[in-house]
Design goal:
This protein is 18% helix and 30% strand. It has helices at 5-15, 157-165, 204-214, 229-239, 259-265, 302-321, 373-378, and strands spanning 2-3, 22-25, 38-39, 49-50, 54-57, 71-79, 94-97, 109-112, 122-125, 135-136, 147-149, 170-173, 178-184, 188-189, 200-201, 218-225, 245-249, 270-271, 274-275, 277-278, 284-288, 293-298, 330-335, 339-340, 346-356, 359-364, 381-385, 391-392, 397-402. The chain is elongated and about 90 Å long. A six-stranded mixed sheet has the order 16-13-17-22-21-18, sandwiched between helices. A five-stranded mixed sheet has the order 8-5-7-6-9, with no helix packed on it. It is of the alpha/beta class. It is built from seven helices and 29 strands.
């Protein structure tokens, strides 16, 4: 089976549905998609209060106050934030007040302490306030019954702030998907252990687990399973109970020991198309178990696995979370290097991209081999070369898939 990149992504997104929403504690909802309209049950502010440390006054008492003609008023009390004292400001008096404290009855303005001598019995005021100065009025920010957030909003720190301010301890949102990552291959060893002849460290499970966590998922890295069909199937079966999505890496090509492809092909629910892309041609996708948990079986070459994640898995995770758009953004830029591209395949070339006065500029990093992680570590973008383009010249316009949010 042969597919284009777009056809395979369409097949993936067609099998993935957004996770059901449920009430989440406020801090757990950070980064999640809101699934309700939020209407405030309180006003913000909830009462008239002082915006400054100073003195609550009647502005008319201070007409003409200046450095040359200061006015002195008796201080008849003090109000701190969190306290509501039964104090009344009558004409010719004032109350010492702190930022956030409720305005006393009778006062219409606040004189900031910098305009005074800071007195506690009598206070000398050297500047005339305008009527209503430094007073925060009840409901001037949000009124009772006003909608503060719309459904489908991604909850960031500012949205969490308003939810807390209107008294919401929980909110209905789609949860983070639980992702299980499994590496397969008898040649793999855990980082930190001693390598034997012909063995390599397992970078793929760490790469994919980190990428899934970066995409917002809760990740369970199972680690290495050797090329034993029963162990692989047992591992996958055991993990389905805690997975909204499974990622395996390795064993999906055309070789005699590509066990993942061999055993999952028999399920009838996982397809193994050849996708017209480089790197990442051998792909596998389908569902497993009674709950039809989506499973991605990605190539074993490290760069192929990472690019496959960005092109196919990240959009699936975003759909599970209800986040739009599903794909990372792309920008137009200029390639600073010349290189060739295979006909009939969409190539994803590792690049270091930076914005400049004339727009984005991208230099290729490392080689094009799907095993070359050194170049990938220096890349912050992928140059996306269409299937019908076989060469890119220095100075050509190219499409850039940005890999880091801060790149933009």
């Amino acid at each position: 089976m042969r597919r284009s990149v777009d056809e395979h992504l369409e097949a993936v997104l067609g099998r993935v549905t957004a996770l059901p929403a449920f009430d989440q504690p406020l801090m757990e909802a950070l980064g999640l998609v809101l699934c309700e309209d939020v209407v405030s049950g309180v006003s913000l502010p909830g009462f008239d209060n002082s915006a400054m440390d100073g003195y609550a006054v009647q502005a008319a008492d201070l007409a003409g106050a200046s450095q040359d003609k200061p006015i002195t008023l008796p201080v008849v009390g003090e109000i701190r934030a969190g306290r509501s004292e039964p104090i009344v400001v009558t004409p010719g008096t004032c109350v010492r007040i702190m930022t956030g404290a409720p305005m006393p009855r009778g006062a219409d303005s606040v004189v900031q302490v910098e305009w005074t001598d800071g007195g506690t019995v009598n206070v000398r005021i050297v500047q005339q306030p305008s009527l209503g100065m430094s007073v925060r009025r009840a409901g001037e920010d949000v009124r009772v019954g006003e909608q503060v957030l719309e459904r489908d909003t991604v909850l960031g720190p500012r949205q969490i702030a308003v939810l807390a301010a209107v008294g919401r301890a929980r909110v209905k949102a789609r949860p983070r998907p639980r992702v299980v990552v499994v590496s397969t291959g008898a040649e793999l060893k855990e980082p930190g252990s001693r390598l034997g002849e012909g063995q390599i460290y397992d970078s793929n499970s760490y790469t994919l687990a980190a990428a899934a966590r970066d995409a917002g998922a809760v990740v369970y890295r199972v680690g290495i399973v050797d090329d034993d069909p029963k162990k692989i199937m047992d591992t996958l079966s055991d993990q389905l109970v805690r997975a909204d999505l499974v990622i395996t890496t390795g064993g999906v090509s055309m070789g005699a020991y590509d066990i993942v492809k061999e055993i999952l092909s028999k399920t009838g629910t996982v397809d193994f198309p050849q996708v017209a892309m480089q790197p990442g041609k051998p792909q596998g996708f389908g569902v497993l178990g009674e709950d039809e948990v989506p499973i991605f079986t990605l190539p074993g070459n490290p760069v192929s696995a990472y690019v496959s994640f960005e092109v196919f898995v990240r959009p699936a995770l975003r759909k599970l979370m209800g986040q739009m758009p599903y794909r990372r953004s792309t920008v137009q830029g200029v390639s600073l290097d010349a290189f060739s591209s295979p006909p009939g395949r969409r190539q994803f070339v590792r690049a270091a991209a930076r914005p400049g006065d004339q727009g984005w500029m991208a230099s290729t990093v490392g080689g094009h081999g799907s095993h070359l992680l050194g170049g990938l570590s220096r890349a912050n973008a992928l140059i996306v070369v269409p299937e019908d383009v076989t060469s890119v010249r220095a100075g050509d316009q190219v499409e850039l898939l940005l890999l880091d949010e801060e790149s933009g």
